[in-house]
Design goal:
The complex is a heterodimer of chains A (375) and B (285). Chain A is an alpha+beta fold and 375 residues long. Helices cover 22% and strands 37% of the residues of chain A. Classes of the chains: A alpha+beta (375), B mainly alpha (285). Chain B: Keywords: Cell membrane, Membrane, Transmembrane, Transmembrane helix, Transport. Chain B: The chain crosses the membrane at residues 12-36, 69-89, 101-123, 143-168, 199-221, 247-269.
């Protein structure tokens, strides 16, 4: 079986790594709580979440820096939970690169190959190092010292030092956190094309949702040590399973509601304040149940007057923020409170004179928003 | 009121400059001049220009021999004892115990070296350790007034000076580098040899220099634990200036000691620089 993702096709069924009920406890703190996750061969998977969510712990258990307290980890079919880092077929790009300051660029890259037993021939090491440096476009920089390299270059050295070993999995621990925005975007593109050409499984840890959304085949959203949802970037954005995911990935208005009727895929709900709207339902909620409904700011529309047949909320504009290609409105509704609406620039023209203080109608097209499950 | 750059520099460097000029440079010049002179008729110094004193250095060869043997040996022994200790303190000990243990390393310094050396005289003397060994049937072993006694004394006295610089360099070592080495396939002992050791060489260099330079001029410990049998250049100098009152010869010996020290230290720094592939951004001292 294969499934298509935003970027390319990954053949399912060939797990390169697997968390099986893996937990990590530090004293009283449960840093990772019964993780169950299959990582497919060749995919680009991201662990996304705020600091302290357990994403780094998950990565460090894969690398072998932490031992699970319960459960286990399989890499390429072998149980490796107790195997030390230096005997695992994975390599890591560290957050602050952790390059060896007393070695040249080439010596840094050669380090992993030099550890091989039986020893690898010097000429073979030199060839592979040169090739790895070429891959990251640092072909000329081999004899340089680490401190002579810029942040972006050091990042590439760290990358070359890892990929030269041809690991089964490349682990990336917030590798772009220290780069400025422009360099980060460049590096993201390079990482992606590198992953496609090498065919190595990449596992990225990040707290930057844009980074995770734009690069990953699948994203694993983490919170409180648990996996909150796993899915393609589109699945997570369009069908967040719970409030935590809806809140963390992109922005969402989260509104209390009561289910009126529900069928496969759709539900009629009544928002607090009495407005009935039709929303997407990833599962069939119980009629009468109190639920939360999430709706993306860009899924809502604004108008001076209500449109026939479209449910609308009357609200007052309290803030307007100009972002160039789009405009963000913050409106106050007497019952629901603050509601965010994002309009493309041209939609603003349909609202002459609708500045702060204006009374507008928030239009809720059928199928916008969805019913959230429990965290 | 604004102070000009020049005035500020003079104020900053003035006190130290005067201190060094009056108490280091000037005396050194005096010693250098004296070393080409002669012994006065009633001792002291008589002006002359002769290399006779330098030609006569061989008469005090034993002092040089002892110094040049025991100072490096003492430095090496201190290094071999201090490194594992510093490593333990910087890497293995839990944070909350660290300060206490570091204080324990300095505690002996709170007592005068003179008193501690007296303690060693007793320990190494006939009624101390040798007596204990004899009781255990190890035969008649003499420790006091041997090179071994002097070695024990100097290592004991100077150990903290070796521990601290090494501790500092190990403590500031980025532990993530060791994770990186492990991740790249290096077992712990290899990452120690390839990462920890080279990166702590600046501390090793500083510690060795401190201990070695002080040992080259050591006087007290050979005096007390060597009992006049194992003496350093320092002891010979005291004898020449205060007993024999041959200031010219003493000066020649001093100048030679300084020269030997400069050469040894330079060679040692070069050696460390080579094996450590020393970085330009982190000076060794």
């Amino acid at each position: 079986m294969t499934y298509a993702t935003g970027h390319h096709t990954v053949s399912a069924g060939a797990a390169i790594a697997e968390f099986v009920n893996t937990s990590k406890r530090y004293g009283e703190v449960l840093a990772a709580d019964r993780l169950n996750l299959r990582i497919e061969k060749g995919e680009f998977l991201s662990f996304l979440g705020p600091s302290g969510c357990g994403k780094t712990t998950a990565l460090r258990m894969l690398a072998g820096f932490e031992t699970p307290t319960e459960g286990t980890i399989l890499i390429d079919g072998r149980e490796l939970a107790a195997e030390p880092a230096y005997r695992r077929p994975v390599n890591m790009v560290f957050q602050h690169y952790a390059l060896f300051p007393h070695m040249t660029v080439a010596e840094n890259v050669a380090y992993g190959l030099r550890q091989r037993r039986p020893k690898m021939a010097k000429a073979e090491i030199a060839t592979r190092v040169a090739k790895a440096l070429d891959t990251v476009r640092l072909g000329e920089f081999g004899p340089r010292r680490i401190w002579q390299m810029s942040g972006g270059q050091q990042q590439r050295v760290a990358l070359a030092r890892a990929i030269v070993n041809e690991p089964k999995i490349l682990l990336l621990d917030e590798p772009m956190a220290a780069l400025d925005a422009k360099l980060r975007a460049e590096m993201q593109m390079e990482l992606l094309s590198l992953q496609r050409s090498l065919g190595i499984t990449f596992i990225l840890v990040t707290h930057d949702q844009q980074e995770a959304l734009s690069m990953s085949d699948r994203i694993c959203i983490m919170g409180k040590g648990r996996i909150m949802q796993i899915g393609t970037p589109r699945e997570l954005y369009d069908l967040p399973a719970n409030r935590y995911v809806a809140d963390f990935v992109g922005r969402a208005n989260i509104l209390p509601a009561r289910v009126r009727t529900a069928s496969e895929g759709r539900a009629q709900v009544e928002l607090s304040g009495g407005l009935a709207v039709e929303v997407t339902a990833p599962f069939v909620p119980t009629p009468g149940a109190a639920v939360e409904v999430a709706v993306r700011p860009e899924a809502l529309r604004l108008a001076l007057a209500p449109e026939p047949g479209v449910p609308a909320l009357a609200a007052t504009v309290t803030h307007m923020t100009f972002f160039g290609e789009h405009i963000e409105y913050l409106l106050a509704h007497p019952v629901l409170g603050a509601v965010q609406v994002m309009l493309p620039r041209q939609a603003e023209r349909a609202l002459p004179g609708a500045g702060v203080g204006a009374r507008l109608h928030i239009l809720w097209d059928p199928g916008s928003g969805l019913v959230l499950g429990q965290d | 009121m604004a102070i000009s750059q020049r005035a500020a520099r003079a104020l900053l460097l003035g006190p130290a400059g005067l201190w060094y000029a009056g108490l280091l440079v000037l005396p050194l010049v005096v010693v250098l001049v004296y070393s080409f002179g002669e012994r006065g008729a009633a001792g002291g110094y008589a002006p002359a220009f002769t290399f006779a004193q330098y030609a006569n250095l061989g008469a005090r060869w034993t002092a040089f021999q002892n110094t040049l043997l025991l100072a490096p040996a003492g430095t090496l022994a201190a290094l071999l004892i201090a490194y594992p200790l510093a490593y333990f303190l910087a890497v293995r000990v839990r944070e909350r115990w660290r300060t206490l243990l570091l204080v324990l390393v300095i505690v002996p310094f709170w007592t005068s070296i003179l008193i501690r050396s007296y303690a060693w005289i007793f320990l190494l003397g006939g009624r101390g350790i040798p007596h204990l060994l004899a009781e255990l049937g190890m035969g008649d072993i003499r420790l006091i007034n041997t090179p071994f006694a002097v070695l024990v004394g100097i290592v004991y006295g100077y150990l903290p000076l070796m521990v601290f610089p090494i501790y500092v360099s190990l403590e500031k070592l980025d532990k993530r580098l060791l994770e990186a080495a492990g991740d790249l396939g290096a077992p712990p002992w290899r990452s120690f040899l390839q990462i920890t050791l080279p990166l702590s060489l600046p501390g090793v260099a500083t510690g060795s220099m401190l201990v070695f330079i002080l040992l080259m001029g050591e006087y007290l410990i050979p005096q007390m634990l060597g009992g006049g049998k194992v003496f350093f250049v320092g002891n010979a100098l005291v004898d020449l200036f205060l007993q024999s009152r041959n200031w010219a010869f003493g000066s020649a010996m001093s100048v030679t000691l300084v020269a030997v020290m400069l050469v040894t230290v330079t060679l040692y720094m070069r050696f460390l620089k080579r094996i450590g592939a020393a970085r330009d951004d982190v000076g060794l001292m």
